Amino acid sequence: MKQGKSLPPKGLPFALVEGGARGLRVVAMNAAARNFGISRGQRLADARAQEPDLLSELHEPEQDMASLLGLCRWMERYSPWVSPEAPDGILLDVTGIPHLFGGEPNMLKEMRERLSHYGFSTSLAPAATIGAAWALARYGKGAESLEPLPIEALRIDGEAARTLRRLGLKTIGSLMAIPRASLARRFHGERIHENVLTRLDEALGVRDEPLNALNPPPTFTAHRALMEPLISTQGLESLLVGLVTLLCRDLEKHSLGALRLILKLYRTEGSRICVPAGLSSASHDPAHLFRLLKPRLETIDAGFGIDAMTLEARETAPAAAQQYGFADNTSVVDFDRLNDRVMSRHDTALEGRVPVASHIPERAEKKSYLRPQSTSVQPARLRPLLILEAAEPANVIASVPDGPPMRFTWRKVTRRVLRSQGPERIAPEWWQLGDGQSPRDYYVIEDEEGRRYWIYREGLYGETSKMQPKWFVHGLSA
Amino acid sequence: MRTEPMQTLVGGGFATSRPDLSDDPSRLMEALRGHIARLENSFPRLDRGHTRSAPWTFGVGDIDGHLTSHGLARHGLHDISPSTYGEVPAAMRMSLAMALRRLSDPAERRPLLWCRLSREVHEYGNLYGHGVEFMGLPRHRFVTVTLKRPTDALWVAEEALKSGTLAVVITDADPRHTSLTATRRLSLAAQAGRAAGLLVFAMPHEGATASHTRWIAATARSQPPPYDAQAPGAPSWNLELVRARGGRPGAWIVEWQHAPHRFNLVSKLRSGEIPAWQDEAGKIAAAEGPSLRTG
């Protein structure tokens, strides 16, 4: 299946080809091509000889995988536990799910209908193990048990299958008829030993096989499917209200609150939109969660409509049932909520400033996204209100060797200094590599208009061997 | 207490129906002001014991006398505009000083939020926590947020004012986005959240806003401290009140005393009156001797 290119017209023979050492070979074909006797592995030239009208395209495995993953994500509407099975399969763990769709046959019927509607030819098979489901879906043709299936249905490689066929073991049933111990003895030490026996055990459920979900399934989730697709934001919002209420009720029962939410919207044409949202503190307040998600809902592209919606709490943390409206602790909750809304809308957050043990002014504090806490009060030194992102060079006239500036030019304007205070010497931190090795002398200066600057000289006058000292403006409103 | 006469007032013909009010113009004015104040504060809300908090004054009798009810509206919006483009840092410092007058009220324990515009941060720098602390605001009582677009900053300001978790919200404002409607929204949000909003304009601005007061700030030369005649003194401003709802305009020179969180009145500005210490510049210029060199 190709994305961004038009599908070949129905009924015309079509094949996907792959470049190899001996020219292009067919790797996949449609039913019409198969009717002309074209088979996998055939050279394109031979296939063209059989059917001159054969259309072909270059095979792009990455595109196939991308589209398989897309389909997997869409399949999450049926089960949270979905895994792609390259190159062309999807595994679903539907434990405890079929009754939601009115039983297993109904669920399979719905899947088949929807998938065929999107243009996929499907072969679905429910089974108790991954191996059995794989075998029945690919080789079953409606069979109920594994016995009559060919030996290749065990997910074994070609060499192992050839060996078994040479031994006359053509079906899984014939393999199962042999006592396991003698099978193990027969293949002992050979590569196919693991291959065949492991796969057989897995298919029969003797040995566990884990299913790695594409996305780890959440513990808390709320799902709604619709009869008719929705496009209007209003309709989606009312659906979201229902989901949020469901999820919050569930969370509250377990005394948990959501920290990270994912809202999944399933479009009718088989794709999915993912809307993430984060919270500063765990919450199970439906109104708050709704306010977080609502602005995102307004920006999504619903396409031809949304026919199912899932809200998942991906991360949770204990949150006791809160009673709102009492004195001071409400401000903490409200503060976090404000932060959440800012985060979900603007990809930034409220930030405090934390002091860092350093004398170098630009290194003496850092931003922190945590809620500001009261700290021990340090004796405040004269510091500017605003610190420039990087100190900007200035041309300064000052008396030598270490007098205060008299006149300086910064941002192309020359200003005369009326008053000054300093110097405050800040030595470089010798343990910091790569710093300038010259000490800085800081001055607070006021120009004729009363504007204040925080200005420093790097280096000293009179050290003849070194470079001339340089002046920088570092802060404003000192 | 005054509900009864006001009902008659709204009914019409107050001068005839309440002769006792029309007799005394000052009482009439007071009654009308009270009525307007009630109309403006007719926001339904729970008052959770916040009546104890002190009024938001400058602490300078002359300035407070120009404002309604002897102080700034605690749950209102106020504009601070620089007098020229270069005075933006001065306007910012003024807004912080005004906010500090509000935050130093012991009954007020909520923090301050400053919504910065990234373009202002590039131009004038980041708020420096050590400097803010030096001004008198401990670092656990202020947070900032930096946004790219002026409308985003206003969005955050409105949400923050409404949330009721902040005492003061200062916003770097772009005059092109602070229409009457926009500022009216902020003003209502401030009332709803019992917070004060301060808009600091990034350039001189004279357009209409829904703010309670409009200030123009510019730096003034400081008065040297007694111990060092060469050192800069307390930060000073030429402060002008150009618009005040229910108040009178005025102009002053004030300085900020960071230790007691207080403004000092340096001078009242009237036409032609220039403080004596303002022409000291000539002496400094004469002192520049031959021992100077560029660096």
How would you describe this protein?
The complex is a heterodimer of chains A (478) and B (295). Chain A has 478 residues and is of the alpha+beta class. Chain A has four domains: 14-59, 3-Layer(aba) Sandwich (MutS, DNA mismatch repair protein, domain I); 64-204, no CATH class; 220-345, DNA polymerase, Y-family, little finger domain (Dna Ligase, domain 1); 386-476, no CATH class. Helices cover 29% and strands 29% of the residues of chain A. Chain A contains twelve helices and 17 strands. Chain A has helices spanning 31-35, 44-50, 61-75, 104-117, 130-140, 158-166, 172-177, 180-186, 191-204, 233-253, 286-299, 329-346, and strands at residues 14-20, 23-29, 55-58, 82-85, 89-92, 220-230, 256-267, 272-283, 306-318, 352-355, 365-368, 386-399, 405-410, 413-426, 440-447, 452-458, 470-476. In chain A, the strands form five sheets. In chain A, strands 12-13-14-15-16-17 form a six-stranded antiparallel β-barrel. In chain A, a hairpin with a 2-residue loop joins β13 (405-410) and β14 (413-426). The longest helix of chain A has 21 residues, at 233-253. Chain A is elongated, with a radius of gyration of 35 Å. Mean pLDDT of chain A is 83; it is low at 323-329. Chain B folds into two domains: 3-40, no CATH class; 56-270, Rossmann fold (3-Layer(aba) Sandwich), CATH 3.40.50. By secondary structure, chain B is an alpha/beta fold. Chain B has a nine-stranded mixed sheet, sandwiched between helices. Chain B has eleven helices and eleven strands. Chain B is globular and about 60 Å long. Chain B starts with a helix and ends with a strand. The longest helix of chain B is centred in the first third of the chain and has 16 residues, at 25-40. In chain B, α9 packs parallel to α10. Helices cover 35% and strands 23% of the residues of chain B. At the A-B interface, α12, β10, β12, β14 and β15 of A face α6, α7, β3, α8 and β4 of B.
